[in-house]
Specification:
Helix content is 46%, strand content 16%. The chain contains eight helices and eight strands; from the N terminus they run βαβαβββααβαβααβα. A hairpin with a 2-residue loop joins strand 4 (77-81) and strand 5. Helix 6 packs across helix 7 (170-186). The longest helix has 17 residues, at 106-122. The structure holds 2'-deoxycytidine-5'-monophosphate. 2'-deoxycytidine-5'-monophosphate is lined by residues 12, 34-35, 38-39, 99-100, 103, 129-132, 180, 184.
């Protein structure tokens, strides 16, 4: 059986995960959050005392880095580090910078690539990330690049963190978003960029329902 794949890339806070999840539900596809995989590697670096500035040190640990994921009955993607469910821990604000740092290490990307491809070989997937349409699934059936202004993205991330009870200012979130944009788009290996054949959807001025309608329309046009 040939499995269908939808690649959803874009910067942090554009609404990717919410929209990818809803799209996957609508289509009955598996939702794969690849950022969560990098976040788990980031958590590992933090636990090993590897500072973001020296992230390349994580390469030494790759032979013993054990990251797995599962999609449970609750339809959530659970992440495991050495068998421990770290799905909630990796969402903490401070893990973002570790994730961005380790994701710039080529050996880490190579190490995690096959795991991501294997999921698409065995399931219909909506995969969200930064390099899905360009590197992980260059032959994806549908590619979408989702973006929004940094301010709109910071506002959404800020609201989300507040909802989770994290005490952080909007200015801090905006600064972090800009720093992550810079890190994600300028790294040498698999930088964040729109694939030539991706459809651009900008969510600055539209709400999630309108964005989902656009996504669905794009998918219907491209998926028989
Ligand atoms: O989507 P997110 O914020 O959870 O991603 C966390 C970090 O992982 C982010 O800095 C970019 C990186 N990432 C990546 O390099 N490639 C991916 N496919 C997904 C995420």
């Amino acid at each position: 059986m040939e499995y269908k794949s939808i690649a959803l890339d874009g910067p942090s806070g554009a609404g990717k995960s919410t929209l990818a999840k809803r799209l996957a539900e609508e289509l009955g596809f598996l939702y794969v959050d690849t950022g969560a995989i990098y976040r788990t590697a980031g958590l590992y670096a933090q636990r090993k005392g590897i500072a973001p500035s020296e992230a390349q040190k994580i390469a030494e640990f790759l032979p013993v880095l054990h990251i797995t994921l599962s999609h449970g009955d609750d339809h959530r993607q659970h992440m495991y580090l050495d068998g421990e469910d770290v799905s909630d821990l990796i969402r903490r604000h401070e893990i973002s910078q570790y994730a961005a740092a380790v994701s710039a290490v080529p050996a880490v990307r190579a190490f995690l690539l096959e795991q991501q491809r294997a999921l698409a070989q065995n399931h219909h997937v909506v995969m969200d990330g930064r390099d899905i349409g360009t590197v992980v699934l260059p032959h994806a059936d549908v590619k979408i690049f989702l973006t929004a202004s940094p301010e709109a993205r910071a506002r959404r991330r800020f609201d989300e963190l507040r909802e989770r009870g994290q005490d952080v200012s909007y200015e801090t979130v905006l600064r972090d978003i800009l720093a992550r944009d810079e890190a994600d788009t300028t790294r040498a290996d698999a930088p964040l960029k729109q694939a030539d054949d991706a459809v651009l959807i900008d969510t600055t001025e539209i709400n999630l329902d309108a964005a989902l309608a656009r996504l669905m329309q794009t998918v219907r046009e491209r998926l028989p």
